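Trying the structure run again after the queue cleared.
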Amino acid sequence: MKLRRIAFLFILILSLASCTPKESEKETYRVTFEVSGGSSITEQSVLHGEKALEPNNPTRLTYIFDGWYTDLNLTILFNFDTPITANIRLYAKWSPDVVMQKSFMDADAAAISLPVEPITGSKLTLPLKGSTNDSTITWSSSNADVVNRHGVIFHPTMGQDDVVVTLTAKLTYGLEQKFYDFEVIIPAKTEVTISDSVSLPFTNLTSEFTVADATLTTYFSENGALPYVDFMEFLSILEGFLYFDDFEFTIGSDTVTIYYQAEYDIKDGQGNVIGTETEDYFLTVDFESNTVTVDTLNFFEGYIYETATDYGAGITYLETYYQEGESVVFRMTPYRFDLVVHQEGLETKYLFPFHIANLLFTGGSYYNVYYNANGYSGIYAFPDSDDSTGQTEDGRAYNSIKVSSLNGTNIAPDVLVATYDMFVFTLDYFFGLKSQRGVESYYTVLASTRDSFMTGRTRDLSNGLFNAVNKTLDDLHSSYHFPGFYEAPSFKLVLETVSQVGPTVRSWYDVLFAVQALFAKTYAQNPNKIPPDYRFIDGGKTAIIYLDGFYTATVEDPDGKDSHRFMRTTMDAIMLENRNVENIVVDLSYNTGGNLGALIRVLGFMTEQPIEMSYMNPTDKSRVTYFADVDTVAYTNVNWFFITSRVTFSAANLMTSIGQHMGFATIIGTKSGGGASSIIPVVLPDGTFFHMSSLNVLSYRVGNEVDGYEYFSIENGVTPDYILAVNDTQDPVKIIEVINLAKAGN
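Done. Tokens:
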């Protein structure tokens, strides 16, 4: 028995001894090294309680190693005599080797190579990293008007002196910085020399004008991408949009003059033709002085065919009062454009930068020719970027013009600068609000933001033009449609928040949102939460018609929205329901405008008087008033009222002005939103497409033929005859109160 017990105890002791860990089975821990830009250090595995081996110091170019630390803040120095009892990460601390960093920056600066000869191109390549030692480089310019910090060059204009600009490179290496100056010579612009030409196809993409497909010879300067065209050849291929055969060209040594004669009917107050008169129009291109001169801006309107869609259907235009304007000289030199006489064998070509020719000669209409580097396309109004399937003509046009061999590439330097210059040229000569805002040149207005988008990168240009149109112009009649053909067709820029527009437009949107909220609350049960086409209040004495815009059915969509058709149907329904209605209120509180022809036809339901329409042109100072008779029997046995708000804009603002000025309608509501100008679509050299307020500024006139007339723009809106707060515009009780007040003459 004793032996068994001893044996059992021995076994028990052996079992217990087997639970004691062996040396080879001690727990191990990881020691890792964060070198922070230095050479790598191998991770170590260390047994519990033992010490890590101190590695050789890591190396880092132009830095001195200061030891290993246990914390990210590099405050606790690690002692390699410390036993390791857990995983640990050690951090390298460095201090700059000032002497070496400065010498390396000197080496990087010495590697920068900028031209010593005068720079004729449109952009310098300014390095942003050291070529030898990877220091970072930022640039500044002693004359950003000539060369900006991105190296984009804005040459002095022809006739000015060359400019020496100091470009300063700030090199940074670690904590060290040094500045280095480089002088470059920027010569004034000289006459463009043409070196290449190519024949490109022209395709008409609109049914509004019948223009035959053709080819157009396109010219380029050496290493340039900006297209030039013979402006007479350009005009010739547009027969069908313009009456090319009516043009007479006279060619001098350095000039080309265009003359044509337009014939107009003389009508009496009843619209009867009692004679005709002719108007002579002249345009002179002076290639020596680099100018285009017209005796009147009407030159660009008298040669245009009528559109296939009859926007004036049912309207007879009566006598017209016209006050002659001044001649206008388009000076190309201040905008760095050159009109070129180019000799090609025995032929002489008279070249315009294509986009200047397009703006001048098609700008009097909604027609444009779009260049995308692979050809030209005739387009009307606004190609539709939302119609990706191409179900509409506008959608098909967009899908066609946006496909280019240059999609997704960086913009050519000369096209970059020309895009900026033409943007300013367009605003300076054609923006209808320029003089009202006291602007001398938009070069000054854009100076503070220019360098943010004139970087040489396509996306920066797209974003910059988007912001300039939507925010800097701060005009509801100015809108960005789509970026140019250097961008991929799928890339779009859209307004998403009111932070993307200027303060004037933002305040308009505030009222728009308020009206939308009012509609949503008042008409929660209606489709789309908007008022019905018409409704009766005050026991049937008053009918309210809701009119949200002015539309004309087009040739492509004859069954589309049409305001004249809507008014006819609505008035028939009102009279069928209550022929004894006394008051008809047209609710324009959510009407943002539309087509003027549609507006005139709508007014034909309200008055038998000829509709008086007045315009003034702030550039050539011309004034015009014409009278339009509408072949609609007016409802003159009712009292007409218009409800307005800040949202009442453009054509709706004009309707308000005409109704008040001619005296056939009483205006109730708040001051209308303004918008006096028609719009002009513009294509820039990079392909950016936008529209803006044109020089046709809607107005009203005061005076008589003996004492003369004074014209007043309606850009700032129309003050109502009686106030009706925005929140009350859908309240029958409040509307009736104001109508009764107006009828009582109080």
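Residues 177 and 318 are 75 Å apart (CA to CA). Worth checking whether this holds up in the mutant runs.
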